[in-house]
Amino acid sequence: MKTPLLAALLTLTATPALLAQTTPGRSASQAKPSTTAAARPAPALNEQQVEARANALTDNMQKALGLTPQQLEKVRQINLISVRGVESARQKYARNVRKMAGVVDDIGQSRLSMLKETLTPAQFDKYQRKREEKMGVPSSQGAQGNPVPGLPGGE
Q1: According to the 3-state scheme, what is the secondary structure of 42-84?
Q2: Around Cβ 88, how many Cβ atoms within 10 Å?
Q3: Are 90 and 99 a contacting pair, CB within 8 Å?
């Protein structure tokens, strides 16, 4: 009694699982061409969003750093180029996070060097301090804190 019941139970539970795994074969004329991320055209960047982000960054920098009119326009262009590049990389490398992170990092380094050329040394130092604070990078003073217990000098 138990064996036929067990066989019937296994048949009933296994059949839907097996059917869910198989798909009917298609002939060559019915087959849909598979589209990959590389074959599909990338969606267009939302230029209004890109400009809004770049303008918001620039406005914040203006308030925090007191930019001159010439600096303001240069910083706006730097931010626009950077935001556009990051958004483009996000769309292009959406499936390759490592590649996207590398491209975004390169954009950030390029932006930093352009800002360093545009800002005065005092403005750039202030920008760096704010940036490190926002990103959670420990300051040089914090890094010198108390020595780690158990290491020489930290007894």
Answers
A1: CCCCCHHHHHHHHHHHHHHHHHHHCCCHHHHHHHHHHHHHHHH
A2: 15
A3: no
Beta-carbon contacts of residue 55 (< 8 Å; ≥ 6 apart): 76, 79
Q: One-letter amino acid identity for 57?
A: L
Q: What is the mean pLDDT of residues 17-24?
A: 49
**52, 98 in Cβ contact below 8 A?**
no
Tokens matching residue 151: 């290491």
- The pLDDT of residue 124 is above 70: yes
Q: Tokens representing 136?
A: 């959670």
For 131, the token pair is: 């940036």
Share of the chain above pLDDT 70, in %: 60
pLDDT (0 to 100) of residue 102: 95
Report residue 44 as tokens: 């267009």
Domain boundaries, the chain: 47-135
Helix (H, G, I), strand (E, B) or coil at 146: coil
Answer whether 151's CB lies under 8 Å from 142's CB: no
Percent of the chain with pLDDT strictly greater than 90: 53
Query: The pTM is what?
Result: 0.61
Count how many Cα atoms sit within 13 Å of the Cα of residue 84 in the half-sphere of its side chain: 11
